[in-house]
Every structure is written in C-alpha cells, then in structure tokens.
User: What shape does this take?
Amino acid sequence: MNRNKYLPLTETSFYILLALCEPAHGYRIMQRVEELSDGQVRIAAGTLYGALENLLKQRLIRSLASDDSRRKVYGLTEEGREVLKMDVNRMKHMVLQAENLLKEADGGRK
Amino acid sequence: MRRYRFFLDFAKEEEWLSEMIRQGWELTGTGFGYRFRKTEPQDTVIRIDFRIFASQDEFLNYRALFEDSGWKHIAGSRTSGAQYFKRMSSSSSEDIFSDALSRAERYRRLSRMWISMSVVSLVALLLLALTGPIDLRALVQPKLFYLTQGLWEKSGAAFWDAFWFETPFALFRAVLVYSFPLSLALYLAFAFKSNRLYQQEKNHEQSI
Assistant: This one.
C-alpha cells in the first residue's frame, strides 16, 4: 500500500472528507458528520473552521463557487478523494486482520 | 460602560465576560478597554477564538459558520485577532471547540501575533538606533539625554538654569528611548507566556 503523508486521517478529517463527497457549506458539513457518525462525532464551529483551513492548505479540499455570498461551499479535490479511499483501504485491512485474529483466538478458547 | 482589563489567558477572559453577561453586561467591543451595554441578566456563556482574516469575505464566512451553529459574533474585527461569541440558546452546540487541541491552537496563533509584534518593534528599534534618532548608549548613560553644548562643564546657577530648562525635553527623549526596548521585552514575554499556555493545553489533550 502506498502510504500517503496525510495518513492516517484523524476521525475529524475523515468525516469531513466523507461529508464533502457532495459539496457543502460549513454548517451542512457539521450536520452531515453528525448523521454519518450516528451522532457520535459532533464538530463545533471553531474546530471545524480550523480543520477546513488545514484541509484547504493541504489541497485535499477546495472552495467552490457559491450562490450564498456569506457562506463558502467546499468540495473534495482529486487528491482529497484519493486520500479518503486510501484511508478506507487502510482501515479495511486493519478490520479484516483484527476480525481474523479475534475469531481464531475465540475459537482456541472454546 | 467601559472596563480596562488585560488577559493573555482566554479561559480566564471567557470566565470574566460570562460572569459579566450573567449580570446583564453584554460585551459590545474591545477597541480600547472592554465596552459593555446593559441588558437583562442572560443565562449564557461567552467564548473566544483568535484569528486574523486575509479578506472580508473570509471573515463573513467564518462568522456565518458560528452563527449557523448557534454562536453569535458579538465583538472583534477582521484584523483584531480575538473574536468573541455568545451562546444563543440551549440548542447551540456545547462549545465552539470540540477537542482540546483546537482549543489550544488559539494560543499558538496568539503567540505568533506577539512574535510578529516583537519582530516589528525590534526592526523599528534597530532602524532608529542605526539612523540616529535614538542613541542606545543613553540607556546606561542618562547624561546623553541632555544635548545642550557644554552643559556638564557649567556650574552654579548657570548649570541649574540650563539643566532645568532642558529636563522636560530630556524626559521626552528618555521615554522614547526606553519605550522601544521595554515594549520589545513585554511582547516577547507575552509571546512566551501564550506559547506556554498552548503547550499546557495541548498536553492536557494527551493526558486524557
């Protein structure tokens, strides 16, 4: 697996990128992250703003043209989508290995 | 109403401003001292972020995000750094930060601001010292604040007349000469202290 310098993503960055598979403005991102995480992850405004600034700087997201002059709309860049996929694969691998070993361990105990 | 206070620690400033608004004094501005307006006592809290914005559009975008999540921007300008927010209702998010690291990072931005202030005053001090208006030797040799020719060779009444005549001017020069190194030292101390607050809050995150 080609390790990217942005991996592993933090839970916050992961959910923001995931929420941005469809372009959205800041508050919409907060709502989507809450939905996507079943209410487990709630990102407050100050934290979200800082995270968006970082993701913009890393060019994983960009700001798009917006109808609303007060609210910026953000979207994933190609690299952002790529990094998100790589992190999903990384976690898939972790989960697979963990499930196998835990199953074996449980089997041995019986 | 106006109050004069100085805080480096946002947590303490938030505590004070929250207490004020609970007593019915809502912050309206921070230009020179803190300005308040009288309201009914409000059962709410004030939170502070620290950011400077490159454009007015970005500043509006930032405030819209906070307002959408239930935090009204009550004081602070595009370039002022400190941004003050009031929690609007019980449906507002709990805080303006949801993790300790992002809460700590406002101190890092504050520290950077003090560092740039230090650099600016150091450059100003060096320029004034190298081009002549400020004679840094006067810091250790106060006699140099007096420019009257042959003043220190005079004696008796002639000396005292000339001495007292020039003293107001000499004091003015002294204030000017001392103010630069003093503000430089102060800015560096603020930069150091806010960086320490950043380290403390950041490590608080790791210890959880």
Observations:
- Chain A has four helices and three strands.
- Chain A touches chain B through 19 residues (CB under 8 Å).
